[in-house]
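Reviewers of the previous submission asked for a worked example of the structure-prediction workflow described in the proposal, so we include one complete record here. The input consisted solely of the amino acid sequence. No template or homolog information was supplied to the procedure at any stage.
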Amino acid sequence: MLVKNCHTNKMIHDAAIPAECQSGQKTVKPRWRNITQEKAGWVECWTVPSVMLTIDYAWHPIYPQKADEQLKQSLSEMEETMLSVLRPGQKTSDRVVSSPCTSSRPPVDPSELPPDKLHVEMELSPDSQITLYGPLLNAFLCIKENYFGEDDMYMDFEEVISSPVLSLSTSSSSGWTAVGMENDKKENESSAKSVHPLALRPWDITVLVNLYKVHGRLPVHGTADGPECPTAFLERVCFEMKKGFGETMLQLVLSPLSVFVSDSYQRPPVDDVLREGHINLSGLQLRAHAMFSTEGLPLGSDSLEYAWLIDVQAGSLTAKVTAPQLSCLLEWGQTFVFHVVCREYELERPKSVIVCQHGIDRRFCESKLSCIPGPCPTSDDLKYTMTRLAVDGADIYIVEHGCATNMKMGAIRIANCNLHNQSVGEGISAAIQDFQVRQYIEQLNNCKLGLQPAVLRRACWLEAGSANLGLITVDIALAADHHFKHEAQRHFLETHDGRTKRVFTVTLKLDLLNTKKTPRKNS
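From that input alone, the workflow returned the following structure tokens.
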């Protein structure tokens, strides 16, 4: 999928041109079906017979920005302003009313405001065709960044802005500014202005997506006379998301997944059955939990993500593939990952400012710990991350003419965490139960081959070798970036999770780190 260098408003404007121009020739209207041509670089990634989309929302009013200064005044202040003109014997200088910046107002907690609610439910009809192309995943991530990213800002339709990237809104200090140290410093100093409480109203978003009988294609590089691309089939996919002010919860459930792959390797006619391979996964459930906090941040700044937890539970994995088929799947995976991480498909950031853990420009932050080298770390550098993967088991056969290799594993557990001590920055632990590898070779029967059916020709297999291992455990420790990073991470997590204590493992590890801070005496 290639995104063209144009704006959707331009497309709408061009679509309004009449069919007959001044020369009298009838032109084709540039609608999307006439623009997204294959020769123009577009790739058809998804075809759905029908889609049912339901959007339910509850919005609170957003006042115009030009009347924002008046709305910041209380009723008593506006009454005092009107009556001060009628009072005799009062100087003009005495009639100055305290501005909203100097007026005493109790601090506002955004979590106490009723949130704006948005409920999106989408259901796709069965038998949809999807091409698992790498930029397709980037397109979904771009939608998330465009509508729910950190660069969002409310705009007044009455304002005229030539370029939202290089212009500064005169009625709002949150506009995008041009790249430059002076402008960034002025914007950083102006962030101390008072923020209207109604502008801090949080979101409450719920999303539910259901897909039925999804047919997928896994594109790989090939020739016209080569094998077809691998295909996949999913009975049902369910995605749920709930986003609030302090947390975001995600859940993805996949029904049994089947992948079919073929090859064109030349084999004897009796081994034609090996041309078709398959991989089956009984089920998969992914749950993610992101935690946010505004502790110690300036009023009006975005909440910081201080914890990200992922738990993946998969069922049993069974497979029967050949070596060329396995190579084809690895080629698709390599191409898919390359397209996902390729910088060509990344969106350009509208703001060059990188916000640190204190909610301000990291270049001008004065709250950075002196022991940390370089600029002030961001929340992504210090947040707590944990990933857990659980697989019920695996039974994989790699077969070929006259031989077969069987790999069987029991329960598989993998965990990853980035909260350790001053020498270890990240750790990975893995455990595999009952790992078995067996090698089989074909043994022909002593009977005459012409007297028995072809289906019985492969009835006798000999186990040429085997290896059985019990419980396998692996612990990997990655070195920290510097010795004092754990100190900044500990202070960051104590600030944001110290009041709520929502992450139980963080609380235990912080207590353990605090007990180890006292140096041990030499004997």
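Residues 1-24, 91-104, 162-182 have pLDDT under 50 and may be disordered. We consider this example representative of the routine output the project will generate in years two and three.
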